[in-house]
Each structure stands twice: as structure tokens, then as C-alpha cells.
């Protein structure tokens, strides 16, 4: 699935250079479930952005199924992203004026899916995360946990190969946190996704089978950490 070689990301501001990622090597297999943790500013979100083709490395290769994302044109990269990669963020990033169903449908627009099929697939995805009764609700009419489930449905409706989650439970209270983790866990198993998640939650990190830690842009991976 993913092969990262010497991935480096430098941000330069005036005379200051930040090494957000500093020579990261990482292999991620199909169907893997990788948890990423580390101190704030360590480079976790930057790594996720590289994996998701949201940004390009300063140096190195980010290969997804044989294609180096760093070398793709913007148009090709957008295509790879919209077909293969689902994102879930800490702030749910829903469009406030669209219903749950319409928010989920937005993921299918760039894929050229027709209106009727879009509607059906969005309803199906929302049902699979337990929101079949909330299709017509606006984000403001839902709890945080429900909004995050809409975001998960939006990430998964296109049937991506990869799900990237950046602190998906960061804005939620404890009970909702467990609920969202259960949904993500179930989706990973049911859909055969490759699931990569950044979390500050040490309970989740402890249970991870593969745990990556990033400090000052340097990555270490512990296998079978939770076994
Ligand atoms: N667009 C940017 N411009 C300049 N510096 C940046 C930019 N994005 C990130 N950085 C810097 O890169 C480093 C890594 O940032 P990153 O967001 O990846 O950390 P993080 O591990 O996700 O932290 P957090 O846990 O707080 O989310 C930080 O020092 C940050 O200030
Ligand atoms: Mg971050």
C-alpha cells in the first residue's frame, strides 16, 4: 500500500527552518491499522497530510500502490485523493447549511456519481454509522458524536482504500469518544480499509497493534505494541 522513503518536510519562515518531518521511512500494508502518537508539534498532522496527498514533501517519496504522490500533477493528485482516500478530522468540517445526507453526498460529486445513486449511497453510509434516522438533520441539530459520524460516513461513502483520521475523538467527551472509536474500528474491519489514525488518547495508543511515535519529525514504529 504505502512506502515512504526519507520523507522530509521543512517549513522555512525567515531565518527559521522547522523540520516537521525529518527522514521518515515507513511501510504500511493493505488492511493495516496504524496509530500515530507523539508530542504536540511533533509532525503527526504533517505526516497524515503527506499520506493523504494534501501536501508534498520537501524531499523523499510517498508511494501509494506504486505511484509517488510527490511527483503527481495537482489534477492527478486530486483524482487519486477523491477516489482512494477518506479523511476524518478533529473538527468535523461539515458544511453547516447542508443536511447530513447532503454533506455525505459531497464526497461523490467529484467522482461523477449521478444524483439518484448519490442519494442512495449517502443514505446507506449514514445508516451504517447508525444515523439512518437523521438524514435530513443539519449539523447544528446534531451532537458532536453524531456530527463526527456524519464525517465518517462522508469519508467512507466513496469506498476508499485508505482512511486517515487526525485526532477524530479530540473534540468529544469520553462516552462519545468510545462510540466513535467503536464505529471506526467496525468500519475498518467490515470494509477492509487501511486505517491510519493520529491520537493523543493513551488508552487507544496502548491497544494499538502497530504504534508509530513521531518526535521532532523523527518516526519510530513499535510492532504488536498492544498484543
Ligand atoms: N504550514 C506550516 N507552516 C510553518 N510551520 C508549520 C506548518 N505546518 C506545521 N508546521 C510546523 O511543523 C511542526 C509539526 O507540525 P504538525 O502540525 O505536524 O504537528 P502535530 O504533531 O500534528 O501537533 P499537534 O499534536 O499539536 O496537532 C510544528 O513545529 C509546526 O509548527
Ligand atoms: Mg496535529
TrEMBL record:
Keyword ATP-binding (UniProt):
yes
Taken from the record, one Pfam family name reads: ABC_tran
Question: Keyword Hydrolase: yes or no?
Answer: no
Q: Which GO terms describe its molecular function?
A: ATP binding
Q: Which CDD domains match?
A: ABC_MJ0796_LolCDE_FtsE
Membrane-crossing segments per the record: none
| Assigned keywords, A-Z | ATP-binding, Nucleotide-binding, Transport
Task: List each copy of the ABC transporter domain by range.
Answer: 2-227
Q: Where is coiled-coil annotated? A: none
Name of the molecule in the record: ABC transporter ATP-binding protein
Q: Which organism is it from?
A: Streptomyces cylindrosporus
Amino acid at each position: 500500500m504505502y512506502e515512504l522513503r526519507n520523507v522530509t518536510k521543512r517549513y522555512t519562515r525567515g531565518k527559521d527552518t522547522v523540520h516537521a518531518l525529518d527522514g521518515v521511512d515507513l511501510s504500511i500494508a493493505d488492511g493495516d491499522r496504524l496509530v500515530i502518537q507523539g508530542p504536540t508539534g511533533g509532525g503527526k498532522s504533517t505526516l497524515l497530510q503527506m499520506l493523504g496527498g494534501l501536501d508534498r514533501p520537501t524531499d523523499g517519496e510517498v508511494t501509494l500502490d506504486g505511484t509517488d504522490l510527490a511527483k503527481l500533477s495537482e489534477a492527478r493528485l486530486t483524482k487519486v485523493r477523491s477516489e482512494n482516500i477518506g479523511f476524518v478530522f478533529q473538527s468535523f468540517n461539515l458544511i453547516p447549511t447542508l443536511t447530513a445526507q447532503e454533506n455525505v453526498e459531497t464526497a461523490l460529486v467529484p467522482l461523477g456519481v449521478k444524483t439518484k445513486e448519490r442519494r442512495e449511497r449517502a443514505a446507506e453510509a449514514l445508516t451504517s454509522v447508525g444515523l439512518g434516522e437523521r438524514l435530513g438533520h443539519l449539523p447544528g441539530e446534531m451532537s458532536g458524536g453524531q456530527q463526527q459520524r456524519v464525517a465518517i460516513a462522508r469519508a467512507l461513502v466513496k469506498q476508499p482504500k485508505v482512511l486517515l483520521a487526525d485526532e477524530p475523538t479530540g473534540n468529544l467527551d469520553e462516552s462519545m469518544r468510545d462510540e466513535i472509536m467503536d464505529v471506526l474500528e467496525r468500519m475498518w474491519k467490515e470494509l477492509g480499509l487501511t486505517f491510519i489514525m493520529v491520537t493523543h488518547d493513551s488508552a487507544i495508543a496502548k491497544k494499538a497493534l502497530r504504534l508509530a511515535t513521531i518526535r521532532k519529525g523523527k518516526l519510530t514504529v513499535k510492532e504488536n505494541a498492544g498484543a
